[in-house]
Amino acid sequence: MFLSEASSSGIQFFNLVPLVVLLPVVGLLINMILGDRLLARSYGEMAIGTIGSAAVGLAFLVAVLLGISLMNYPEGQIVYLADWINIGELNANWAFQVDTLSVTMMLTVTGVGALIHIYSIGYMHEDVRHNGDPSRFKRFFVFMNLFIAAMMVLVSADNYLMLFVGWEGVGLCSYLLIGFWYEKGKDGIGNAVAGKKAFITNRIGDFGMLIAIFLMFWAFGSLNFNIVFEKAPEVASGLIIAITLFMLVGVTGKSAQIPLYVWLPDAMAGPTPVSALIHAATMVTAGVYLIARSSELFALAPEVQLIVGLVGAGTGLFAATIALAQFDIKKVLAYSTISQLGFMVASVGMGAIVAGIFHLVAHAFFKALLFLGAGSVIQGVERGQHHAEHDKRLNADIKKRGEEYVDPQDIRNMGGIRNTMKVTFWTYIIGALALAGVPPLVGFISKDEILAEAQDINMLIYIFLTIAAFLTAFYIGRQVFYVYFGKSRTIPAAYASESKKVMTIPLIALAFLTVVGGSLNLPQIHSFAKWLEHTLHHAHLGEFNVQVAAISTGLALIALFLAWLVYGRRYQAQQKLPAAERPDDPLRPILGPVFTLLENKYWVDEVYWTLFLNPYIALSKFLADVIEWRFWHDWFHNVVLLNGYNRFTEWLATAFDLKVIDGLANGLARWTERFAAWLRRSETGYVRNYALSVFLGLVIIIGFLIIR
User: What do you get for the CA distance between the two ends of the chain, in Å?
Assistant: First the structure.
């Protein structure tokens, strides 16, 4: 059933597509059932991690076979699995759409996801012990497999309703994994609050997505991609604009665009592999994929395309400025992800679908590399802290310098890491240069293709993205100099040690993909564009622009040079002092109050609290205290209902029961007594009277019978 011979040449593997969802589900079920037993054994964690990683790795092999099938049959195929919802006109089957776009996403999600799973075996071994609960190792891999399965449902669906199941599934998994250490964080609830923030913010976006789905069914009578796209030109343009605008609301939530981007930086509360999976391969790419998949609808609404492009470009520039002044190694990368997602959204919004999807794939390579590298550094510093605490001499130095606790994610506590974590350093440098857009790495090729398209389509978007690209090179250079160069600023950083091979091998693999990934879409060849053109009929295919490439490369090199000037040798020499005596970030005196503005992220969260959350909380308290308790409970329940009930029952007991009911009963008794007294008069005791009565009775009866 899983293999079908082609009539002409080659073999089709299209029927294997359900396995991309089924295999991760099987992996999580095995770990759910056997995980506790495995943890009781010495090899338990390795077995659980291997099962979880193998499930995703096998799904990747299935995606490879699907890709091979598409080389022979690029038109693709829809694989029906089962009936799902058939109510009236709504016919939504559980069916998989295998085409070049969906398989590209499958390969990216499962390929990068498998490397993240392998890395997680080593990372979570230390993380569960650092956080004091080794039993959660199993739970982590169950959630991670579920995340991949949900994303596979999303990208393989042939209709919007099935896509929405995966859309909600990745939202659920992000909540579970961001709040994985729910009892940790600020005030013992910080991580739980971060998970809740992600969940609620995405529900706002998902409301827009639901409205879009309702409007589509109303307009087209179907949610199947092919039927919707076929009927779309016949529908009024106003309705198409409404559908695509509501889709954009969903995209701003899932792909962290203005104004719903605020959940993504807080998502750093989850373990670092979770950050890598969310930021590189799953969830946040869902919005980009949605626009690409719905490109035929967006092509009919050029006004919405412009709005999408401006939202993406604005987000790209806005988030890049915030990243300039962050000190948490993961939050710098988080705002970087928001910015790079802005590039992707702007690209697919403009109609440059190929460039946007290629940057999605490229970003998955180098951003997963950067996040996993950051996780390696964090655990290296934690190991250094642990080593120093158990060395009497170093422990005394720690107390002298006031470093009893060093935040392992604060880049100001690092420095000199390149000397002790060389594999992490060199792979991180490759990812950083790719993010900065330095040729010939994959980030340069994918980013410049977007810039070239923007220059041809919309100059304002091009300017925004070019400035964002310049800032990107500067903030990643700043981070690299803070973390890896100069002398170690703290004792834990000085004694940081390299991670295990189970963590460094995925770093090397991702670095390799970052170096060679540009070959997927080399200028003048456009193999990736030729691959996608079978699916994306409205895709705009641009050409390599030497001028744009030269400008962006020059700006990237200038930005990296400026980062070296600001954070180079002179600044590093001042960082040997204890934290309390250390000079502040040299960018602060340069930017002045602007740096404070960026460091506080424009106070957007505070503005949201002031405009939305505090009024909502106040309204909730008013409804709970005044309306529900004082009005509904104290007054309506106690006064109206309880007192009313008491008065009514008192009236029933006294007025109605005593006067009416008892009056009727007593009246009936009196009437019976009077009737009996009257009837008693007929009892005379004379036989002649009784004989006369019998005679009269017989006369009446006989008379009645005669008349009848």
Answer: 91
What does the pLDDT read at residue 571? Answer: 66
Calculate the alpha carbon distances from 310 to 79, 242, 332, 605 in Å. 37, 17, 23, 22
pTM of the model: 0.88
3-state secondary structure at position 410: strand
Per-residue burial over 222-249, b if 16 or more Cβ lie within 10 Å, else e, is bbbbeebbeebeebeeebbbbbbbbbbb
pLDDT at residue 632 tops 80: yes
What span, in angstroms and rounded, lies between the C-alpha atoms of 105 and 705?
A: 102
Whole-number Å distance between alpha carbons of 365 and 511: 8
- 3-state SS, residue 324: coil
What does the alpha-carbon distance between residue 306 and residue 324 come to, in Å, rounded to a whole number?
Answer: 28
**Beta-carbon count within 10 A of 435 CB:** 31
Scored b (16 or more CB within 10 A) or e, 60-86 reads bbbbbbbbebbeebeebbbbeeeeeee
Helix (H, G, I), strand (E, B) or coil at 270: coil
> CA torsion angle for 484, 489, 490, 492 (degrees, to 10)?
10
The CA–CA distances, whole Å, from 244 to 215, 218, 284, 349, 587 equal 10, 14, 18, 11, 41
DSSP summary character for residue 134 = T
Question: Nearest 5°: CA angle at 549, between 546 and 554?
Answer: 125
CA angle 169, 175, 179 (to 5 degrees): 150
The neighbouring-strand residues paired with 79 are 96
Q: Per-residue pLDDT tens for 403-435?
A: 667 889 999 989 899 999 999 999 999 999 999
Contacts of 430 (CB under 8 A, 6+ apart): 366, 369, 441, 511, 514, 515
Q: In angstroms, rounded to a whole number, what is the distance separating the alpha carbons of residues 565 and 54?
A: 46
Q: What is the H or E stretch that residue 77 is in? A: strand 77-87
DSSP assignment letter at 441? S
Buried b (16+ CB within 10 A) or exposed e, 657-680: eeeeeeeeeeeeeeeeeeeeeeee
Neighbours of 646 (CB within 10 A): 10
Residue type, 608: Y
β-pairing, 4-5 with 11-12? Answer: antiparallel
What is the token pair recorded at 319? 């988030």
Q: Which two tokens stand for residue 500?
A: 């295990």
User: Is-cis flag, bond preceding 615, omega within 30?
Assistant: no
The 3-class secondary structure across 454-476, one letter per residue, is: HHHHCHHHHHHHHHHHHHHHHHH
Q: How far apart are CA 444 and CA 514, in angstroms?
A: 10
Give the CA distances from residue 578 to residues 189, 479, 568, 582, in Å, rounded to whole numbers and listed in that order: 30, 20, 19, 6
Task: Give, in order, the Cα–Cα distances in Å from 547 to each of 309, 334, 442, 505.
Answer: 22, 30, 18, 38
Query: Can you give the pLDDT at residue 6?
Result: 42
Residue-averaged pLDDT of the chain: 91
Compute the distance between CA of residue 43 and CA of residue 483 in angstroms, rounded to an integer.
34
DSSP state for residue 94 in the 8-state scheme: E
